[in-house]
Write a structure and sequence with these properties.
The complex is a heterodimer of chains A (about 110) and B (about 475). By secondary structure, chain A is mainly α. Chain A folds into two domains: about 1-40, no CATH class; about 40-110. Chain A contains five helices and no strands. In chain A, helix 3 packs antiparallel against helix 5 and helix 4 runs antiparallel to helix 5 (about 70-105). Chain B is of the alpha/beta class and about 475 residues long. Chain B has three domains: about 1-70, no CATH class; about 85-270, no CATH class; about 295-465, Rossmann fold. In chain B, helix 15 (about 355-360) links the parallel strand 2 and strand 3 (about 370). Chain B starts with a helix and ends with a helix. Classes of the chains: A mainly alpha (about 110), B alpha/beta (about 475). Chains A and B meet through helix 1, helix 2, helix 3, helix 4 and helix 5 of A and helix 1, helix 2, helix 3, helix 4 and helix 6 of B.
Chain lengths: ~110, ~475
């Protein structure tokens, strides 16, 4: 929750407030440590591929870069960034789903 | 819009939290998918002046490729694919950093430097390119190594670290040039050179790392792809990317730490290539009293056993023997035998590899036992069957010195009889002799894992008649 409040603050401050942005990074990292502390080994792979899919969040950055009226080169780069991030997102989530489904069906 | 991003961030955190428990993991992944959708849709409706053709085409093409890859990959190829997807994520972040230089309003003025766009943005730009490209090329080297291709580092010994240090220093200097130069032509050249050198660094760093260390490398690269995303967030000033990237970065780091602990090695030791050299000890094949047996004889042994533990390793995945091993387990259970699977934390080529593989063939969750819980029970076990594992059951780990000294192992030698299914006496990735094979209670079956297990299944069925 702290990280969320800080993220809000950082959104208002944007890049001028260097300190706050880095602070957000640090707090989010600590939150990450807290969250993943005790994961059963069974879930190591799904957790890895699930968080791998999440790292495709950079697709948001890629979309922002695809401004109209920019040079063809800039647009090509943005296009490629979207494509690769989406491969990461869709591939990652689908594979994780597939794995988790095979965990699930045994419990019946 | 900020509030929708906040909601997405919250859902990501919530989703990861749910992913850490077996009961809620499926829901967790679903929540995280919704968060991603929310983040993308929010971005699409908030930002004006977007180039819709580029975006829609990109989303469709990328999504389709991702879906095909996910559908077509066999469970046994999972480690490779996770590595490859990771690489793509890192690459996307690097591309975002480069593309943002081209569209930055400040930089439209030919006299402005990258530094003029703000300190955080300026420093994060080369950093994102570096981490992103290292993640890309490192992941692909890992991909090929996991696929069984051998790769040797072109430089040997201490010179190797020197080479990496020189490349690192060069990237640092180029980054400074990229940030400080007032000429946009020079900025472009610096950027291209950073891309090339970072790519080379990724290749060189992963190349010397041995196959047994791959779980560490794969989870570390996973962490890098998160950090690359966070760095890209700093470049474009998006707290969403910073928070979510940092979460992925740390979760990957924790997995890496767990893997290192399971091998009793430090992260530095793995990365600098302690046993990654893939050397083979001189006496590695020097065995004195090997007792070889056949699947039929093992079946007889199993017939009289009341407690059996199966130890799977990477060889099980290679032979695709996960289904037949379950068949054997089920047969024995039907005869009233207590069957369990002992899973070493670094068995296989990625964290939790064996769990996924056995889950695919419907082995019930409660039959999978962690190392710490089953080790004290080996002395009450009649038969241990080792399928394609080697270093994780090597008693040499109990010695004070040696490449795997101190690594926690499965104490299989405490069982009454140990059956090792292995194609030859070739050493494992650590490249050392396994004294287990020489022990009095150890029997070797020199066959492919699938073939051997099928033989046992057939024979156990015969005996039941």
């Amino acid at each position: 929750m702290i990280a969320l409040v800080l993220a809000d603050a950082a959104a208002d401050a944007t890049a001028q407030n260097v300190f706050l942005t880095i602070f957000v990074f640090v707090i989010a990292s600590l939150l990450g440590f807290e969250l993943i502390n005790k994961v059963p080994p069974t879930l190591h792979t799904p957790l890895m591929s699930g968080s791998n899919a999440i790292s495709g969040i950079t697709v948001v950055g890629a979309i922002i870069c695809a401004e109209s009226g920019e040079s063809w080169f800039a647009q090509t780069l943005a296009f490629l960034a979207i494509v690769f991030a989406m491969i990461n997102v869709v591939g990652g989530y689908m594979v994780t789903d597939r794995m988790l489904a095979s965990f699930k069906k045994k419990e019946k | 819009m900020v509030y929708l991003y906040l909601l997405a961030t919250f859902l990501f955190v919530f989703g990861i939290k749910k992913l850490t428990s077996v009961k809620t993991c499926q829901k967790g992944n679903r929540i995280s998918e919704i968060a991603m959708l929310l983040a993308i849709v929010t971005t699409l409706v908030t930002f004006s002046n977007l180039s819709w053709g580029v975006i829609v085409a990109g989303l469709i093409v990328g999504g389709a490729i991702g879906a095909v890859i996910a559908k077509k990959t066999a469970t046994t190829q999972m480690p490779e694919m996770v590595a490859a997807l990771n690489g793509f994520g890192g690459f996307a972040s690097a591309l975002v950093a480069i593309a943002f230089m081209l569209i930055d309003e400040t930089l439209k003025n030919p006299e402005k430097t990258l530094w003029d766009t703000g300190a955080v943005n300026a420093i994060s730009t080369p950093l994102t390119i570096l981490i992103g490209m290292v993640t890309l090329t490192g992941s692909f080297v890992a991909y090929f190594k996991l696929g069984g291709k051998k790769m040797a580092h072109p430089v040997k010994g201490a010179n190797r670290h020197l080479l990496h240090a020189v490349i690192g220093a060069a990237i640092l200097l180029l980054s400074w040039w990229q940030i400080a130069t007032g000429s946009h032509a020079q900025m472009s050249i610096a950027t291209v050179l950073i891309v090339i050198l970072s790519s080379a660094l990724g290749v060189f760093l992963v190349m010397p790392i041995g196959g047994a260390d791959m779980p560490v490398v794969v989870s570390l690269l996973n962490s890098y792809s998160g950090v690359a995303g966070a760095a890209a967030g700093l470049v474009i000033g998006s707290p969403l990317l910073v928070v979510v990237g940092a979460l992925v970065g740390t979760s990957g780091l924790i997995l890496t730490q767990i893997m290192c602990k399971a091998m009793n090695r430090s992260l530095g030791n793995v990365l600098l290539g302690g046993m990654g050299e893939e050397t083979v000890a001189k006496d590695a094949k020097d065995y004195k009293s090997i007792k070889s047996t056949t699947p039929e004889e093992v079946a007889l042994l199993l017939d009289g056993a009341s407690s059996v533990v199966i130890v799977p390793g990477y060889g099980l995945a290679v032979a695709q023997a996960q289904h037949v091993v379950r068949e054997l387990g089920d047969l024995l259970i039907k005869r009233g035998c207590n069957v369990r699977y002992a899973i070493h934390p670094v068995a296989g080529r990625m964290p939790g590899h064996m769990n996924v593989l056995l889950a695919e063939s419907d082995v019930p969750y409660d039959q999978l036992w962690e190392m710490d819980n089953i080790n004290s029970d080996f002395k009450n076990t009649d038969v241990v069957i080792i399928v394609g594992a080697n270093d994780v059951v090597n008693p040499a780990a109990r010695e004070a010195t040696g490449p795997i000294a101190g690594m926690p192992i499965l104490d299989v030698d405490h069982a009454r009889t140990v059956v090792v299914i292995k194609r030859s006496l070739a050493p494992g990735y650590a490249g050392i002799k396994n004294p287990l094979f020489d022990m009095d209670n150890c029997l070797m079956v020199f066959l492919d894992a699938k073939e051997a297990l099928e033989g046992m299944v057939k024979e156990v069925k015969e005996l039941a008649k």
